[in-house]
Amino acid sequence: MRQSAKRYRVQVDTCFVDVMRRCGDPARKGAWITGELIEAFAALHALGWAHSVEVFDREGQLAGGLYGLRINGLFAGESMFHVGRDASKVALMFLVQLMRDTRMTLLDVQWRTDHLESLGAIDVGRQQYLALLADAVATVIT
After folding, report:
1. For 89-126, what is each residue's pLDDT tens digit?
2. Which CATH architecture has domain 2-138?
3. 3-class DSSP state for residue 11?
């Protein structure tokens, strides 16, 4: 992944709505992100609650990214996309490092897919999750 990351430039919150639109491309299998959802998340982004990680190729084109909600030490990932090889993985890798750097404690990916499992995602039981969630939300990050 470090080699793949060298092919890209990563930024945060520079084109939030574009990332959501790419994640919500109706041509994608299982597309569920509607225009109304984009509007709602854009409002949350304007308020500082929703964030995106954007990955650009050498030509400056958006090659991948992800978005989600941040509440103190929690990042609840909503969706990710890629058009460039490994671009969504690079976005996730960047997010994890950003979370470590800021002492965030919980990255909720909502469900474990084979893809996310290959990147280290694990299932957590309800009781353990609720404890992790309470700690993360109580952790004020400045």
Report:
1. 999 999 999 999 999 999 998 766 776 767 677 788 89
2. 3-Layer(aba) Sandwich (3.40)
3. strand
